Amino acid sequence: MSHPKHLTRSTGQASQVIAWLIVGAGALLMLAPFYFMFVYASLSRTDIFQVPPPLFFGDHIKANFAILTARIPFWTNLGWSLYVAGLSTALTLLFCSMGGYAFAVYDFPGKKLLFGGVLGVMLVPPFLGMISNFLLIDAIGWLDEPRALYLPGAASAFGIFLMRQFISSTVPPALIEAARLDGCSEWRIYRSVVMPLMGPALGTLGLVSFVASWNNFMGPLVVMRSLDRYTLPLALRAMQSPVDTEWGALMAGSAVAVLPLLILFVFFSRQLVAGLTAGAVRG
Fold it and tell me: Alpha-carbon distance 263 to 84, whole Å?
């Protein structure tokens, strides 16, 4: 009688081992590009194209950084990326939290129509507005200005939708009414009552916005003109050429560019998942 139970237990353990092997193989496949990027950042261009390719670190890292900084103003480009991504994230958190709060708390004429418009914008591919965005930025004289990278997208449709869903599902209307009865102004209710409760959603939106701004390539490509004002993705692309690309230097720059994102993912991945799921179900 105990044989079927033992067989079932063994089958369950085997399934678990197989599942872990599949997950481990998938993790290795995803981590391999990052590993080789760091390895190639320490190798010369000749070493990179050896057959078979090298699997371990070399001693060419200083020379690669020397080539990198000679070809492009790398540290200036890094500073612009931090500046643009930081401002873009801060403005997105401010405007999207305000917009989401308004949609979640207030009733006003055209509310459903406006929110439907927000949802509709989420369905439109961003590149469809590239030409109109360029014409508008050119008309107001913002070409080659960093503000053209963080102001136009400060109130994203996704951010407003995320904030609205989170507030609707986690902030009780009775709490807002109690604050009004205590004499709080609408601004103070938003700042002192609602904002402290929006931590998970703000963390998630901040992380998503920072990564999107940091990795943005098409935006700077369309509006930026000066090499010393390029953000990192565009500056690293400027190093490539059909015949004379220093791949070791390019990998060194890419390694530095990806480090902030890896650090953010390591420390805030759980908060990202919590923020995305917190407003998914009404409590």
Answer: 18
